[in-house]
Amino acid sequence: MIEGIIAALLGVLAGVGGSTAYVRTRTASGKSKVDKEIATAKNKASDIVLKAKDEALQLVSDAKKDEGDRRKEWQKTENRLADRESNLDRKLDELDKRAEGLRAQEDEVEGLKNEIRDIRTRQQEKLEKIAGLKKADAADKLMQMTEKDIKQDLLGLVNKLQNDAMETAEDNAQMILVTAMERMSSEVTAERTVTAVKLQDEEMKGRIIGKEGRNIQALQRATGVDILVDDTPGMIILSSFDPIRRQVARITLEQLMKDGRIHPGRIEEVVAKAEKELDKEITRAGEDAAREVGVVGIPKEMIRLLGELKYRTSYGQNVLMHSTEMAHLAGLIAEEIGADVRVTKTATLLHDVGKAVSHKIEGKHHHVGAELARKYGMSEDIVHAIEAHHDDIEATTPEALVVRICDALSAARPGARNISAENFVERMRDLENVALSFAGIEKAYAISAGREVRIIVSPKTVDDLSAIKLARDIAVKIESTMQYPGTIKVNVIRETRAIEFAK
């Protein structure tokens, strides 16, 4: 066992000795290799240093060369500046010499002027002594003699110029009007007092009439329009002098026929909706008219009143069409004569706006329209042109005169107006106003071309006996205050409603 241990120790020692010899050999070879690499690196560094020195020397040489070139350029520039400075000094010396010469010449000229003044003064004194007149007296006498000699010629010339101006002005005015009328042409329309609504089928007539006529009576009562069912096959005729009422009735009938539910409660609901729809259409009509004419900045309240003119007539002529036509004419004429086109167009478009409320406000429509324009903040030029388009107020501006001329042009067209239609509308309105003058009346409608006035009274104010007396009183007042052909039926309607809601 001891021998085995000894043998193992000898083996270990032998292995350690072999490893040490191997390490020494590897170390010696690595050192020699490192020395070689160091030597190689030193050689490369020396080459790099030499190359850098050469490049530095080359840069220094280039810099010196550039500096020499720049010095030469600066020297040339300095020489040019020196030459210019010498030239400027020479020119300044020349200018100084010329200025001295001019001053000497000015002194000489001034002396000559003084000498001439003295000579003229002496000559004038000699002339005044010879003529026995002062200069001012001589001038006055000469003017009097000249005026006396040419006075008649001047008067003749002035008269000729005045006559020529009058003839030319008339010709120019005629040419302007004719040119404007030629460029602006519109249709002449005559408004009717009836509107036709086409039926889908004959069965619809019975549904519109309703049981015992309840539906048609509710329609007539709610809209104030006389409804004729059996006069024209396939059509229902709406008769009323008020276009707005006819329009509400037309929209209501069309909605009812489209919906199919026709009864008094539904009729009142649809009438209310039709009135709202018509109100929107009125505003849209006013905006369209202003857009067509090219006028902006009109207050929305005036636009609303302008739209109402679509459903108003004057002697059978649609007022909105009349105003639009006038605005186009006015713009053309104002442009020709140099007036304010915007003011002229705006005033012309709104000149009849008072007719939209003539049934609500007392007064002539041009005064009412001017007050409305003033109320809603429009300029005084526009207000004056609206107010002066009739003869009771003098037109003091060119724009107001143009509005007045265009109103006459539009109204004077052949067929533009129908006097009998206007008289008829006035008679219908007077008939309604007579009825509305009594207390307790909620609504009054003139229907059947003025042969009947339908009156709806408040059931709380008027009882059954009072309704009978009221009908008689209204008939007596109509007989005493109005002139009309035939007879007029006074129909007083009193209706009591009891409404409750089950919740």
SSE layout:
Layout: H1 2-131, H2 135-183, E1 194-198, H3 203-209, H4 214-223, E2 226-228, E3 235-239, H5 243-259, H6 264-293, H7 300-308, E4 313-314, E5 317-318, H8 319-337, H9 341-349, H10 365-375, H11 380-387, H12 398-411, H13 419-436, E6 441-447, E7 452-457, H14 464-481, E8 489-494
Parallel strand pairs: 7-8
Antiparallel strand pairs: 1-3, 2-3, 4-5, 6-7
Structural features, described:
This protein has 503 residues and is mainly α. 69% of the residues lie in helices and 7% in strands. It has 14 helices and 8 strands. The chain has helices spanning 2-131, 135-183, 203-209, 214-223, 243-259, 264-293, 300-308, 319-337, 341-349, 365-375, 380-387, 398-411, 419-436, 464-481; strands at 194-198, 226-228, 235-239, 313-314, 317-318, 441-447, 452-457, 489-494. Helix 2 packs antiparallel against helix 8 (319-337) and helix 6 (264-293) packs parallel to helix 8. The longest helix is centred in the N-terminal third of the chain and has 130 residues, at 2-131. The chain is flat and about 130 Å long.
Write a short abstract of this structure:
With 503 residues, the protein is mainly alpha-helical.
Which features characterize this protein?
flat; three-stranded mixed sheet; 8 strands; 14 helices; 503 residues; three-stranded antiparallel sheet; mainly alpha
* SSE run: HHEHHEEHHHEEHHHHHHEEHE
Which class best fits the helix and strand makeup?
A: mainly alpha
Alpha-carbon distance between the two ends: 123 Å
- What shape does the CA trace take? flat
User: Number of DSSP strands?
Assistant: 8
In terms of per-residue confidence, which ranges show pLDDT below 50 for 5 or more consecutive residues?
18-23
- What spatial order of strands do you see in the largest sheet? 1-3-2
- Can you count the helices? 14
Query: Roughly how many Å is the radius of gyration?
Result: 55 Å
- Average predicted confidence as pLDDT: 80
Q: Helicity, in percent?
A: 55-70%
Major beta-sheet overview = 3 strands, antiparallel
Strand content: 5-15%
